[in-house]
Structures are given as structure tokens and as C-alpha cells.
Amino acid sequence: MTEIIDGEAVASEIRDDLTDAIETLTAEGTRPGLATVLMGDDPASETYVNMKQRDCEEVGIEGIHVDVDGDAPPEELYETIADLNDDPEVHGYIVQAPVPDHVEYREVIRRVDPAKDVDGFHPENVGRLVAGDARFRPCTPHGVQKLLEAADVETEGKDVTIVGRSDIVGKPLANLLIQKAEDGNATVTVCHSRTEGLEEKTKAADVVVAACGVPELIDGSMLSEGAVVIDVGVNRVDADTEKGYELVGDVEFESATENASAITPVPGGVGPMTRAMLLYNTVTAASEQTGIDVELP
Ligand code: NDP
Predict the structure, then answer these.
(1) Could you read off the pLDDT tens digit of each residue along the chain, which spans 297 residues?
(2) Same structural domain, 167 and 263
(3) Residues 260 and 144 in one domain
């Protein structure tokens, strides 16, 4: 029997614990504040930002949203960033990606105060993570670690293959899993579009994390018996549904369950965890900025 790792349930527990921490901070006079910045009107980005704002409301974080015109010069976004850096009520914020083509995302990230960079993308925070002194773990990789923990999957001494080397998922996750730490100590292989013999590498793994954005790239035949599978992918594929599409992961779920001992579903696996860990980082930021200690899940 393959265990289905329920990301909704794990995320809900984390949100409950965070709610307690937020109550403590609020009682001490600091209500954690998270701002979202959206430049342009990309519908998918609007949906993500709305979900993040709803999450804030649910747990008692002050949600602030700032829209920036998609045709505005980059300087207008930089001004918003400078204002958020100076605003004591904003403990953390994110600039929703993608930004319009005329704006360089890397430059945007460099301008974010690293202490408020709850995405964990600022070079200072990336460096700290690699050095084993993370201030904020990026939300998706952190969510993956929490899912493994919730499913009682220890990574120490395990072979983990990550398919994907993006700056937001594959690279930070690989760096977290190789840390000399209880939730690290894995031997990690990172694959990408130029990898030769992908199947060999996934088959050799105790844990496979698929984060490549290719619908159902990994099937059951590419997994070893008993492998744990974390499917980060969220892909829209045409389907005969009301919306005209359905969401599938980077793993072919049905065939994967023939070999996997545990697997995350799509949707309902990593997605809710990414959102929960953004709240986690916001509470961390508020606690660090105020010196008020709280217990984190
Ligand atoms: P990117 O497009 O930034 O990176 C994809 C990575 O996969 C790249 O490193 C790419 O290689 C690699 N890749 C592409 N094709 C192949 C292939 N055929 N074989 C092996 N590797 C391949 O994607 P993201 O990391 O941003 O996202 C990955 C997936 O995860 C997407 O489906 C995205 O929607 C989803 N996602 C889900 C989140 C969640 O919360 N559930 C959060 C973030 C992302 P190369 O570097 O050579 O181009």
C-alpha cells in the first residue's frame, strides 16, 4: 500500500501552530504583517496573491497588498520596495514573480531588505542557507522537508534525487538536504534538462523530488521499489473538464504508486505547504525583528 502524504493536513497543522505564535506576538503588541506586491495583471499571479492574502487573514497576520502598474518604469517598483523596507508594520513581503519583461527580477530581489525577504531569495539569504545558517528557508523546499518529516521519512544517509535545479526549488532544496543537520545529511543528486540517464538516477534514489515542470515526466518504471516521491510539479494540461484543463504533477501518479511507498498528490501535496511556509517565515521575521520569542512548528 502506498501512503498518500496529505499536504493539506500537514499544512493545516502548521497553520494552527502558527496561529498560537501569532497570538503571542499580537498580545505583546506586534501583529505580524506580510505584504504582497504584484506588478502587472497576470491572472495566475493574481490568484496566488489572493490566496496568500486569504491565508494571512485565516491565521491573524496583517495582510497588505500593493499593486504596481505593469507598464510603470522599474523605479516605481523600487520605490514600493523602499517603502516596504522602511515600514515597521511590514515584517516580511514578497514581490510576486514573474515581473514584466522590462524589469530585472534579480535587481528587484537585491533591493529587498534581507530581514524581510520571506521568500528567502535575496543573495544574503541564499548565502546563509548554503553556509548552514539559514535565516529563511525558501517556502517550497522547506515545505518538502516538513512533508518528509510528517511522513516519518528520515533523510540521513539516504540517496535523494531532485529533478530540477531552479533557484526557487531544486537548488535550495539540494542545499538544505546536504546540510549537516537532522533534516539533512542526505546524499543528493540534482538533475536537469541536460542530465543524461535520468532514469538511472531516479531509480537509484530512496527519495525522488520532481520539480521540473514537465507533466508526468517521472513514471513508476523510473522508481525503485519503496521509493518516497515528492511531486512539486503543478502543470495545467488540457482536459475534458468544466475549466477545460486539469492539474497534474511532474510524476505519473498511478504508475508511481505501483513502486512508491509514499507519494504526494497534485493538487494537495506540496502546494499547500509552500503557502504555509510563507506564513512561517513571516512569523519568524516578526519574531526576529521584535525580539519576541515564539515557538515555531
Ligand atoms: P523552472 O522551470 O524554473 O525549472 C525547471 C527545472 O527542471 C530546470 O532546472 C530544468 O532544467 C529542469 N528540467 C526541465 N525539463 C527537464 C527534463 N526533461 N529532465 C530533467 N530536468 C528537466 O521550474 P520551477 O522550479 O519554478 O518549478 C518546477 C515545477 O514545480 C513547475 O511545475 C512549477 O509549477 C512547480 N512549482 C510548484 C510549487 C508548489 O508550491 N507546488 C512552487 C514552485 C514551483 P534546466 O535548468 O536545464 O533548464
Answers:
(1) 999 999 999 999 999 999 999 999 999 999 999 999 999 999 999 999 999 999 999 999 999 999 999 999 999 999 999 999 999 999 999 999 999 999 999 999 999 999 999 999 999 999 999 999 999 999 999 999 999 999 999 999 999 999 999 999 999 999 999 999 999 999 999 999 999 999 999 999 999 999 999 999 999 999 999 999 999 999 999 999 999 999 999 999 999 999 999 999 999 999 999 999 999 999 999 999 999 999 999
(2) yes
(3) yes
Which atom from ligand 1 is nearest to the alpha carbon of 235? 32
CATH code, 106: 3.40.50.10860
Q: How far is the CA of 100 from the centre of ligand 1 (A)?
A: 20
Same domain flag for 41 and 145: no
Q: Which residue out of 94, 166, 208 has the highest number of ligand 1 atoms within 8 Å of its CB and is therefore the one to mutate?
A: 166
DSSP secondary structure of the chain: -PEE--HHHHHHHHHHHHHHHHHHHHHTT---EEEEEEES--HHHHHHHHHHHHHHHHHT-EEEEEEE-TTS-HHHHHHHHHHHHH-TT--EEEEPSPPPTTS-HHHHHHHS-GGGBTT--SHHHHHHHHTT--SS--HHHHHHHHHHHHTT---TT-EEEEE---TTTHHHHHHHHTSSSTT---EEEEE-TT-S-HHHHHHT-SEEEE-S--TT-B-GGGS-TT-EEEE---EEEE-SSTTSEEEE-SB-HHHHTTT-SEE--SSSSHHHHHHHHHHHHHHHHHHHHHT------
For ligand 1, atom 5, name the residue with the nearest CA. Answer: 212
* Domain that includes residue 220, residue range: 139-271
165 and 48: one domain?
no
**Residue whose CA is closest, atom 21 of ligand 1?**
192
Residue 34 lies in a domain: yes
103 and 181 assigned to the same domain: no
Whether 176 and 235 share a structural domain: yes
109 and 174 housed in the same domain: no
60 lines ligand 1 (CB under 6 A): no
pTM, whole model, 2 decimals? 0.98
**Same domain? 185 vs 224:** yes
Residue 154 inside a domain? The answer is: yes
